[in-house]
Write a structure and sequence with these properties.
Fumarylacetoacetate hydrolase, domain 2, globular, binds magnesium ion, alpha+beta, 5-stranded mixed β-sheet, single chain, binds 2,5-dioxopentanoic acid, 9-stranded mixed β-sheet
Length: 278
């Protein structure tokens, strides 16, 4: 497997602990056919250097250029239950039950590429929200042909108070400055990712862990391919796109994020996405 890091100095490729720096354009690379084989050939051609490692600390960017970020909802049983509970008073619970079982998944627009933040950058909570959570989500990197070419980690920051007040407020609960984080890299593999991997979330407040949970991605009700097929129905993505696949970790109602919290989301084979709440 090969990891791609988008940095201010170019694209860093990591293969078997060796680092290579390419000056290729991010959009062109993501959309080149047979990406894994293409990256293997690039690693053969480029000189490896450990000097590139400092770019990961000083120049890392979100793994996007022109790609929109979309997201899926209610793909795990835990998310269905939590959403039903939060929207009970508003009478919205039935829709979460229906969408969990329906053939058509819940898909929603999450972020323009300009609004996405990478690992090490700040995420935000809305000033008009009183209950806010991170949502750790396996995120698919998809080329313009609708093929999954890699995997990254996403944080679908969400206002549960706004979403719970009325399900039609979903866009406001989900789309605002600093609400979408992805990174730290894109994992490119020769075979589809093993969904038996865990995704885990840790929230650290003033040096202490205040929330910690992990779930196997095998608990996702739908397959990544199924989600992508629906997303590409009637919608084209000339430079490809990213798709957050939904959360299986939902903190209980007594937990809300605070300014200064550090959010750490890990998938063993990919790495850790780290963001502090502004
Ligand atoms: O329908 C509300 C959003 C659900 C969501 O973002 C998730 O399940 O991850
Ligand atoms: Mg989500």
């Amino acid at each position: 497997m090969i990891k791609l890091y988008h940095t201010e100095k170019g694209i860093l490729l990591e293969k078997e602990n060796q680092l290579y720096l390419s000056d290729k354009d991010w959009d062109a690379l993501i959309n080149s056919g047979h990406l894994y084989e293409h990256l293997e050939a690039l690693c053969e051609d480029l000189p490896a250097s450990t000097d590139y490692r400092e770019l990961l600390d000083t120049a890392l960017k979100a793994p996007v250029k022109s790609q929109e970020v979309w997201a899926c909802g209610v793909t795990y049983f835990n998310s269905k239950l939590a959403r039903q509970e939060e929207s009970k008073k508003a009478g919205g619970g039935i829709y979460y039950e229906k969408v969990y079982h329906a053939d058509r998944p819940e898909l929603f627009f999450k972020s323009t590429p300009q609004r996405v933040v990478g690992s090490g950058e700040a995420v935000r909570i809305r000033e008009d929200s009183s209950w806010d959570v991170p949502e750790p989500e396996l995120t698919l990197v998809i080329n313009s042909m609708g093929k999954i070419v890699g995997y990254t980690i996403g944080n679908d920051m969400s206002s549960r108070s706004i979403e719970g007040e009325n399900p039609l407020y979903l866009a406001q609960a989900k789309i605002y400055d600093g609400s979408a984080a992805v990174g730290p890299c894109v994992l490119v593999t020769s075979k589809p990712l093993d969904m038996n991997n865990n995704i885990s979330l840790e929230v650290v407040r003033k040096g202490k862990t205040v929330f910690e949970e992990s779930i196997s991605m095998s608990q996702m009700k739908r397959t990544p391919e199924e989600l992508v097929t629906y997303l590409f129905r009637e919608t084209s993505f000339p430079q490809g796109c990213l798709l957050m696949t939904g959360t299986g970790i939902v903190p209980t109602s007594d937990f809300s994020l605070r300014s200064g919290d550090e959010i750490r989301i890990s998938i063993e084979t990919i790495g850790t996405l780290i963001n502090v709440v502004a």
